[in-house]
Amino acid sequence: MQIIVSDEIKAVCPIFVGACVEAEVENTPYSQPLWDEIHALGERMKKELTTESLKDLPGIAATRTIYRACGKDPSRYRPASEALIRRILKGKELYQVDTLVDLVNLASMAYGYSIGGFDAGKINGDTLTLGIGREGEPYEGIGRGNINIAGLPVYRDATGGVGTPTSDNERTKISLHTRRLLVLVNGYDGNEEKVRENAEFIQRLLREYCNSDGGNYQLYR
Fold first, then answer.
1. pLDDT at 76 > cutoff 90
2. What is the 3-state secondary structure (H, E, C) of 135-159?
3. How many Å apart are CA 187 and CA 161, to the nearest integer?
4. Bridge partners (DSSP) listed for residue 148
5. Which terminus of the chain has fewer Cβ atoms in its 10 Å neighbourhood, N or C?
6. Torsion over CA: 136, 80, 9, 140 (sign)
7. pLDDT for position 77
8. What angle do CA 107, 163, 141 make, to 5 degrees?
9. Contacts of 20 (CB under 8 A, 6+ apart)
10. 2-220 belongs to CATH 3.40.50.2300
């Protein structure tokens, strides 16, 4: 997959660095060892963070800054990584979906980065372009119906939007039938080392929980 970062994103975030992980996988409805990892991370976060201090985590803080720069209120349209951690800190259970989705959520919480997980077989074409959502642009968020993505960073394939930091699109969502996985790590803080670590963490999870060799990843700017 070729990933293009548009000039409009570069204008508001010249330090952006992303990672694209591609892998052959097997999905399952549930993985107890994976959820043991998720719960362990949640317990650590409850000891170290509050709903206010989590906004200062570098990955989350940078994403919130980009929301404002693009014209979106990050407190109304929260990045998914922030929303997941807030849920844990409030003592609520995370939604359990399937192993691949749960795995992507863990990777996002562990590093604070906005991460999109997609069924690569549902993406139209071999190129994704990261731009900014436009007024009236159609977009169906997973489990959210039509959402207003104007002012949100958005990846588009040949058909239209597939992923934003707030919600990925229903059209390209992961299912139990997903065999080719595409994961995008968004480092709006420009920290290449952490973005690499996050991509390698995802590869490790895929090897352990999805009968995968972890695939490969590439950085893009």
1. no
2. CCCCCEECCCEECCCCCCEEEECCC
3. 19
4. none
5. C
6. negative
7. 86
8. 105
9. 1, 3, 182, 183, 184, 185, 217, 218, 219, 220
10. no
Other Cβ atoms closer than 10 A to 105? 20
Domain boundaries along the sequence of the chain:
2-220
Q: Specify the pTM.
A: 0.96
Amino acid at 6: S
* H or E segment and range at residue 7: helix 7-12
In three-state secondary structure terms, 76 is coil
Angle between helices 99-111 and 192-209 (to 10 degrees): 150
- Spatial contact of 115 and 135, defined as CB atoms under 8 Å apart: no
In percent, the amount of the chain with pLDDT more than 70 equals 100
> Running DSSP on this structure, what letter comes out for residue 39?
H
pLDDT of residue 189: 97
Could you tell me the two tokens for 155? 């990846």
Tokens at 197, concatenated: 């670590």
